[in-house]
């Protein structure tokens, strides 16, 4: 496949390629490197005039202190419940809808798909006043349950878009054969289609989980009780108006970043082709 | 007979949960926002009388609005255009075979997977004049001799916010384009090389047309996301000083939840929709046309 060529121009281009890739990687990693080093420093070291890059002595205790200084355990658990709950509801609503769009013909199909796409345009932040109003009516302000439904609703577009593509990429013949064997549609979907579509479903599932885990704006606006806040909002207790405890802020931030970055690396390839073409291959 | 009616109704049962979810949590809020934008709303958020376009006139006449609108346009255009160009170049680079490509790809995904509020805090720390690590790094490397004030003016702060926006948006563009690039049949390039086409000719006549669709998807989605992006600006400056770094979304958040002017905030929302509607129509036209092909 790769043809070996040794013309000087090719060698220079090769070197240039590596230089660019290395520089881009370094810039990309820089904020994470800075956060990690800062998380290990003492407050005095961070604010000293003679700034350091690497910590003089690594204070691993910062990573433990944050659990006492803020309800970190609550934040972690809340993020997990919010992200998990949003994912479950988004999938429970999204799978049947995507199935109907992929396998049935009905009046209003285009209108429904159109609304799904247009709903993408309304980010929660522009609708916050309206969302707050709905939440008050349902007495769901300052409630994790409310946040779960909002996240699920605003992720419907992606869920349906990705799953519809996945389902359409799978031939309906097997389900039809199952119907002849006496399965109804629901059995056919669960027993035949979903196992084949599993890779696409898992990608979609993880993507929604990450979106909900990373959500900040609605949680900031709706949740006022500290014990109910997710990580993204909660860690800002270290980001006060008068004094920012950078070492704690970044130590806590790493707890919020690491799990999802790892998850993301697993789905990246599948997700991108799905987004670009309207479906994750099954 | 009964079976036939059921078959007609059946699809609607399947899409019903999704419709209910989106109706309650997206459609109803949209209706509320439109109603509030046309009403007199009390500080507690209670909708009183119909007020016509009073909220809109108040918003448009206020001195801050022009600045905020200008910021929003600068923010959206700068972030989307620059991240698209840079992301595209990066995708072309990553499309080559080289050692360590997998690792490079994995690293470049980081900013996309990280929540914006944390990215923004990290950059806020990095560019701090007194103890930021950018100054420390440059001092240690001997590139500068004295700490530089990276943010002497509100405009400078806004530039850094744009830079941060570009930084977090690039991966999405890169990976969208990359997926388009990887679906191109290699024989096109072989044929072009045989015909003596230069690298640039191949880029503009083979690559560009073939990745156009992935580029359109990523650009349209980015316009919507960047326009509506809240956490970066909120974390770094909260739109201060005096609205100089506000965009429409941070401005409406302050109007609604700090100043108790929910009617005007709703009007700002509606103005935002109207601007975005143009982009959404482009998106719709594009997808529908693609569906016809």
- Using DSSP, what is the number of strands of chain B? 2
Number of H/I helices of chain A? 14
Helix content of chain B: over 70%
Total domain modules of chain B: 1
- Summarize model confidence as the mean pLDDT of chain B: 84
CATH topology of chain B: MetI-like fold
- Element string of chain A (H = helix, E = strand): HHHHHHHHHHHHHH
Strand content of chain B: under 5%
CATH homologous superfamily placement of chain B: MetI-like
Supply the helix-strand structural class of chain B: mainly alpha
**Mind telling me the C-alpha Rg of chain A?**
24 Å
Percent strand of chain A equals under 5%
Sheet with most strands: strand arrangement of chain B: 1-2
What does this structure look like?
The complex is a heterodimer of chains A (282) and B (293). Chain A has 282 residues and is an all-alpha fold. Chain A folds into two domains: 8-39; 70-277, MetI-like (MetI-like fold). In chain A, 72% of the residues lie in helices and 0% in strands. In chain A, helix 11 (198-214) runs antiparallel to helix 14 (246-277). The radius of gyration of chain A is 24 Å and the shape is globular. Chain B is an all-alpha fold. Chain B has a single domain (55-292), classed as MetI-like fold. Chain B is 75% helix and 2% strand. Chain B is built from 13 helices and two strands. Chain B has helices spanning 2-37, 54-61, 63-94, 101-108, 110-113, 116-126, 133-140, 154-182, 187-194, 199-227, 231-236, 248-257, 262-292, and strands at residues 39-41, 47-50. Chain B has a two-stranded antiparallel sheet with strand order 1-2. In chain B, strand 1 (39-41) and strand 2 (47-50) form a beta hairpin. Classes of the chains: A mainly alpha (282), B mainly alpha (293). At the A-B interface, helix 1, helix 4, helix 5, helix 6 and helix 7 of A face helix 1, helix 3, helix 4, helix 5 and helix 6 of B.
């Amino acid at each position: 496949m790769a043809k070996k060529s040794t013309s000087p121009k090719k060698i220079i281009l090769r070197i240039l390629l590596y230089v660019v890739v290395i520089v881009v990687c370094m810039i990309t990693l820089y904020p994470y490197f800075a956060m990690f080093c800062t998380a290990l420093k003492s407050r005095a070291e961070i604010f000293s005039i003679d700034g350091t890059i690497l910590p003089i002595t690594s204070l691993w205790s910062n990573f433990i202190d944050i659990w006492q200084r803020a309800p970190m355990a609550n934040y972690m658990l809340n993020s997990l419940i919010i992200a998990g709950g949003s994912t479950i509801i988004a999938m429970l609503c999204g799978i049947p809808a995507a199935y109907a769009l992929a396998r049935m013909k009905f009046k209003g199909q285009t209108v429904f798909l159109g609304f799904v796409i247009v709903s993408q345009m309304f980010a929660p932040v522009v609708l916050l006043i309206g969302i707050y109003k709905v939440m008050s009516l349902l007495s769901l302000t300052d409630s994790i349950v409310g946040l779960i439904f909002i996240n699920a609703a605003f992720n419907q577009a992606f869920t349906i878009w990705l799953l519809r593509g996945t389902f359409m990429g799978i031939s309906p013949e097997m389900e039809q054969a199952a119907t002849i064997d006496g399965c109804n549609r629901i059995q056919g979907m669960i027993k035949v289609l979903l196992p084949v579509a599993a890779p696409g479903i898992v990608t979609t599932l993880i993507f929604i989980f990450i979106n909900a885990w990373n959500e900040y704006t609605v949680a900031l606006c709706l949740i006022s009780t500290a014990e109910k806040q997710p990580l993204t909002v909660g860690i800002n207790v270290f980001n006060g108006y008068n004094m920012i405890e950078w070492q704690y802020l970044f130590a806590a931030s790493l707890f919020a970043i690491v799990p999802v970055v790892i998850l993301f690396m697993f789905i990246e390839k599948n997700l991108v082709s799905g987004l670009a073409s309207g479906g994750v291959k099954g | 007979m009964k079976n036939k009616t059921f078959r007609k109704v059946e699809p609607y049962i399947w899409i019903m949960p999704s419709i209910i979810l989106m109706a309650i949590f997206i459609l109803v809020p949209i209706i509320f926002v439109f109603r509030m934008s046309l009403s007199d709303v009390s500080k507690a958020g209670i909708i009183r009388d119909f007020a016509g376009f009073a909220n809109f006139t108040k918003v448009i006449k206020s001195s801050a609005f022009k600045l905020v609108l200008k910021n929003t346009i600068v923010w959206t255009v700068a972030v989307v255009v620059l991240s698209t160009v840079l992301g595209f170049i990066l995708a072309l680079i990553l499309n080559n075979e080289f050692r360590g490509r997998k690792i490079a790809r994995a690293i470049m995904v980081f900013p996309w997977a990280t929540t914006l509020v944390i990215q923004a805090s990290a950059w806020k720390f990095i560019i701090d004049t007194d103890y930021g690590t950018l100054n420390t790094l440059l001092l240690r490397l001997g590139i500068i001799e004295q700490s530089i004030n990276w943010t002497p003016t509100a405009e400078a702060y806004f530039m850094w916010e744009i830079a941060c926006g570009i930084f977090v948006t690039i991966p999405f563009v890169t990976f969208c384009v990359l997926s388009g690039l990887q679906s191109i049949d290699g024989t096109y390039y072989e044929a072009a090389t045989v015909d003596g086409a230069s690298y640039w000719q191949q880029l503009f006549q083979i690559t560009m047309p073939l990745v156009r669709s992935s580029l359109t998807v990523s650009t349209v989605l980015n316009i919507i996301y960047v326009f509506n992006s809240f956490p970066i600006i909120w974390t770094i400056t909260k739109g201060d000083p005096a609205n100089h770094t506000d965009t429409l979304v941070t401005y409406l958040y302050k109007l609604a939840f700090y100043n108790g002017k929910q009617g005007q905030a709703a009007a700002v929302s509606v103005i935002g929709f109207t601007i975005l509607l143009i982009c959404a129509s482009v998106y719709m036209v594009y997808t529908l046309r693609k569906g016809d092909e």
